[in-house]
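Input for the complex:
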Amino acid sequence: MALKLNQSEFEIHRDEQKCISCQVCVRQCSNDVHEYDEDNESIISDNIKCVGCQRCETLCPTGAIRIKQRESEFKYNYNWSPGHLKNIYKQAETGGVILTGMGSDKPYTIYWDHILFNASQVTNPSIDPLREPMEIKTFIGRKPDKIDLYKSSGKNMKNPVFLTNLGPQLEAEIPVLFSAMSYGSISLNAVKSISRAAYEFGTFYNTGEGGLHKDLKKYSESTIVQVASGRFGVDKDYLNSGAAIEIKIGQGAKPGIGGHLPGEKVNYEVSTTRMIPEGADAISPAPHHDIYSIEDLAQLISALKEATEYKKPVGVKVSAVHNIAPIASGIVRAGADFISIDGFRGGTGAAPQVIRDNVGIPIELALASVDIRLREEGIRHNISLLVAGSIRSSSDVIKAIALGADAVYIGTAALLALGCHLCQKCYTSKCNWGIATQDPYLTKRLNPEIGARRLYNLLTAWAHEIKEMLGGAGINAIESLRGNREHLRGIGLSEKELSILGIKHAGEAW
Amino acid sequence: MQGRLGKVKKIFIREEFCIACRLCEIYCQVEHSKSKKILKAFKEEKDLISRVLVEEVGFNSFAIQCRHCSEALCVEACISGAMIKNKNTGIVICDENKCVGCWMCIMACPYGVIKRNISEKKVASKCDLCGDEEYPVCVKNCPNEALQLRDI
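Predicted:
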């Protein structure tokens, strides 16, 4: 066998004084890093197999293991980084596309971290959310151009009748939804955790393109069913079993790229849910082959609305690309009720690294430009704007809403709550945390009762923080913050960046 | 399994969530060691015995410990009166001072959860639901809540 040129990414430090050879690490590693040597009654670890998921470190009862990023031994070269060398060595060995998982980790500007939020002082009072009502409930769907009320004269004047025909709306208790992660790309226990948490909290989760498993139908009022290019598991029953429908055009991590669920992951349960043969590759084409224009999209939206008798909002998910603003305008005009935009840092179960790290634009800029464009065209109220692509904290949520979003989708943050350690090896199907795998030995590791509880806690914590921040700014309803850019200031940004975001620089007053 | 007086607690096994990490066994050994300290117990003490057993075939696994049966065969089989079922708590306990190490309880136990302790005097070693602890250590330390203590 020819020489392999790659180095290990991680170093496994085992404190022999603390190691009791209990073999928990041996049993927990799906990559076979640790091996028990019966002769010496000790454990030997192989650095090169380690993916850095830290499962062993987390479960070690004595804290004997530490996984450390290994400093590269490659000769320093600013131009030829260790990443380039490793990829070239790997490709020279295999001849394949470099795959990766989760969102891009490249050091592009994170605009959230260059935006500051406002607070009240003297001239307007701040509000204490623990003592005063604070509304963060969010309605997603097309809003009417104007509101018609019938006011009768005389005694009934106090009870006007609402005449406007309001389209279907989703009512979320928090402007945070769980983004599309299909059953197949993640385990059923992971989907169960997410769906139960959404149901119990009163928000929504998205099925992704993998169809709806029969065990999840009880959470249908919290489900957004997705229709993607593969049309897996889509029939009239599926469309009607959710609260809303989302047409998936693209995904932030891999704009313009389809999906491929390898046949090994298509077990009996996945195959029945996706309505494809067991063991068959599930291939989502790059485009929808019936959508080559906005007009085609309008036809599909109409077809889906017909199929659901105009009772459910229909949205369109696109990835943030260069022309996102006019594309969004087209989507509004095609009749969508909401649009989901996924930024280039959005996660994925598998994507070519070259696409993930080089294609698309940041969600902050996409969101701001879409919001401004739709306002200029006078059609912003016709649509709800959902954004995704690395919403990491409640402050990201607040900033997104002030930049014009109606709500955000969280995917990676939700998986982190379930135990994900961002090792980015989702595509190997060996997820030690029982999330991105279908191996029954590994999926057992995620108890959906624990998972749902943790996600519920996360939403509760974020809701508290959002209320605190709103209160500090003197706002008592999230509706009042939507698109309220005066509450944002940029820091360390250029004139151009500020103008795209539509915000002033820190230090600039009204 | 109702005790004659009051409620009894029992450990429930949820095999669909057992991940075969065997941390229950490790913490059981520590709890029943002399030092009750994990490093000291494993490094210095000998013949640690776990009273909970993880059974494993393929990806199916579960941890089992004494079921504290309402009609405990080990109690009936005991020739020295060491194996006693507490009528209030429902817990079956082996009084190691009385135990003569005849292993009849082991022969009688349908679950195979009584172990031989031959480190000093021969005695039968079995789950005591961790005596006065609020939760048995196997329940407390299961990372996936595959073991649960419930009232009956």
